């Protein structure tokens, strides 16, 4: 007759032992006071508990105050750093505070709605103040559904998991921030379809991709159409003048055109040759059509080398640098004051014409009359004005392949390939007519030239022709002085 009683005693002992030695924090609690509070609120007409609790946090605290702790296990004491149950109870305001009250609302609403199980992630604190991220699960024990006087709550410490999740989220946010706020234009694109197209060519036995695209230029356009833009950053929108990503994508044909087709072909050749990272200078256009010179850096991102499904393209605006380089190159070839070519380029052009044998080549030497007088009597500003006017006239009479250069302080030269003496005479006539027209628009110091010309035929060096043209110029200057009489001083 004693065995059934012994079995019941053993079972009770086992349950106590399991509770005490459980590897998770267990709380046996009495929620009957909370049940009575809920009944009172319902009787008062409260229907939306979440809204009611949200209006006043003191109401949440009132709910918590109705919960009584019956027992906790050893793991609970260890987790919260309490010496014993009474120590833990004394410090409950330290354990349950701050954002825990907000997450507690979800648990209360679950119970209000009739659930016998509730749970969620929340925040507790150890007695020493250290934060604990925990996952809470509560169950109204069977047989106590009417009174809620026995509720078992299990708390799992997920602090490390939450810390790792937050670090990952922070890392992702940091990476996204770097992408979004990068000072250069960044594009994330999918080139997987291009990889498939190139692999298909290899399977067909194509070995020389450059030759293949020479014969089939339409393949380059086919590849360009297969690029899928995944994301762009804000700098990209600003650079190309797009209000948003959708606007940018609609205008891609306006942005990537003209010389970009050639540049893209070179990119494909580099990819064909296995260069998954490469750099080159390209030309794109804003949505409004403004030309942009860009440094393009292309990279297949690590882990995507097999399929090219994720690539990053960085575009750095080098338009200002290219303009500066072009201006420096211009300065190296031109006389700033007259906008004509300088003597160095004139000498190079003479060598080129001789090397290419572009005969006949005529050379016109023009000396600006009155420059020294203008500088001495009226100042260098007046002299500079004469030089600029001379440049305007000579620029107007020269069209490629002809060229005009300032080869000395007041001396100019025209190189006229494929031009004989008759054609040269027409050029000189144009110069004279333009000088007359120029003097009508610039009253005061008159513009005039002493001009000489010579034509080099095959077998004669251009230096010899230049000397003959120079002598002819001096002859014209003497003739002008004789015709001017005593006023010749103004004509040097």
Automatic annotation (TrEMBL):
This is Sensor domain-containing diguanylate cyclase. Residues 359-492 form the GGDEF domain. SUPFAM superfamilies: Nucleotide cyclase (SSF55073), PYP-like sensor domain (PAS domain) (SSF55785). Coiled coil: none annotated. Transmembrane segments: none annotated. Pfam families: GGDEF (PF00990), PAS_4 (PF08448). NCBIfam families: GGDEF. It comes from the Bacteria.
